[in-house]
Design brief:
The protein is of the alpha/beta class and 408 residues long. It has twelve helices and twelve strands.
Length: 408
């Protein structure tokens, strides 16, 4: 038998661990809701996830199937995604104000959220609307008895929610719409719950509708729609599906759709400045941008957007300086976060801001790693920078004054 050195074994171990980590595993936890009574659906996905994709998913449908859940209990599950599957009445589960606050806090800290069916019907759940980008004046309404199976009208076919779903046939038995307190025909087209109404109810620019299911409301005799909405924020991703894929006799498409929702919401987008993806902004992130600026590496498009903290469309030395300033606590936000209150950067003001940023960093107590990045930054600036003048360094001053608790 060939002798294998300890070093070789360690290399093999690193490679194996690296492969496992890159593929990942996403854990989703189901909160008490109508879906809690459908263990067969979750068991199928747990046991057959490889039929739907390459990322392993684990769905825990028992730990939080209880009354009066706390923030601490949610944290203990280590869920990457929270699922609320049609919590529309007291029997299926209505959350208290404290529970809703706990859910909001956990999601906003960087975890995914999936909401289906009539979860927005109880008024107690209204604070969850903004997590999906909906107006606070919306209200959930249930319509059931639609013909089934029915087909989802896919509007954005290239969205990851529809991976392996060129068409989508659902066997959902329940369909939900949202109505405004002042009336549902918000766009004035004479139809309730139609696409124009849904577009009016979405008020967050990061939210969008990627699909609809059209159905006949037997109570009114009108055709109405139930949407699939997605939102991708700096810290989390969330999905609202107005139908209930787990309810009834799910189709293969329903299983695929649920798998896709879990995978998409389980991979949190990189926040601006965090190129390493560790949910922190450090000197290491600044060094990654610096390597790209000097031409040692190239950044994929997604990372380029993450590195462009000025919002100018290009990645340059000023982005490096601002990320390093954020890492040492000199600033609390980036220009791209608040374009309306930070000055527009022209070439001259950009050079001035860079000079000011470097000057402030030189006066700050830095770690060895931070000093190395600063020195590398100074070497990368080949042209002579203007003298740092505090009165002209409006960008740095503005960013330093604004308090932003978004990334704790």
């Amino acid at each position: 038998m060939r002798n294998i050195s300890v070093v070789s074994l360690l290399i093999c171990l690193v490679l194996i661990v690296g492969v496992a980590y890159s593929q990942g595993q996403i854990k989703a936890v189901l909160l008490k809701s109508a879906g809690s009574d459908l263990p067969f659906f979750w068991d199928h996905l747990n046991n057959n996830w490889s039929d739907y994709g390459s990322t392993e998913i684990i769905i825990d449908y028992s730990s939080l199937n209880k009354e009066r859940i706390t923030y601490g209990e949610i944290v203990e599950t280590q869920a990457q995604v929270l699922i609320i599957d049609d919590a529309s009445n007291p029997q299926d589960g209505i959350f208290s104000q404290k529970e809703v606050s706990a859910i909001r806090q956990y999601v906003e800290e960087g975890h995914g959220l999936i909401i289906t069916g009539g979860t927005f019907c109880p008024w107690e759940h209204q604070p969850l609307l903004s997590l999906l980008g909906f107006s606070q004046y919306a209200d959930g309404q249930l319509y059931s008895g639609a013909a089934q199976p029915d087909t989802i009208d896919i509007i954005v076919p290239n969205h990851p929610l529809f991976k392996r779903l060129p068409t989508y046939s659902t066997a959902s038995r329940k369909f939900y719409s949202l109505k405004f307190y002042s009336g549902s025909d918000w766009d004035g087209d004479g139809y309730d719950g139609y696409p124009g109404d849904w577009e009016s109810v979405l008020v967050d620019p990061d939210a969008k509708i990627v699909g609809y299911i059209f159905y006949l409301n037997y109570l009114t005799g009108k055709q109405e729609s139930s949407p699939i909405c997605v939102i991708s924020k700096t810290d989390y991703r969330a999905v609202f599906a107005g139908h209930t894929p787990a309810n009834g006799s799910p189709t293969v498409d329903d299983y695929q759709f649920y798998y896709n929702m879990i995978v998409w919401t389980g991979v949190a987008p990189l926040k601006v400045g965090d190129l390493s993806g560790d949910r922190k902004i450090t000197a290491y992130d600044a060094s990654l941008v610096l390597q790209a600026v000097v031409g040692h590496t190239s950044l994929p498009e997604g990372q380029r957007r993450t590195a462009d903290v000025t919002g100018g469309g290009n990645v340059n030395a000023l982005d490096v300086a601002l990320i390093l300033q954020y890492a040492v606590g000199l600033i609390t936000i980036f220009p791209v976060d608040y374009p309306s209150i930070t000055p527009t950067l022209h070439p001259k003001t950009e050079n001035q801001a860079l000079a000011e940023a470097i000057a402030q960093l030189e006066k700050t107590s830095l770690t060895k790693e931070q000093k190395q990045v600063l020195e590398g930054l100074k070497r990368s600036v080949k042209k002579e920078l203007p003298k740092a003048v505090s009165s002209q360094g409006k960008l740095v001053t503005t960013l330093g004054k604004i308090k932003q608790n978004r990334w704790k």
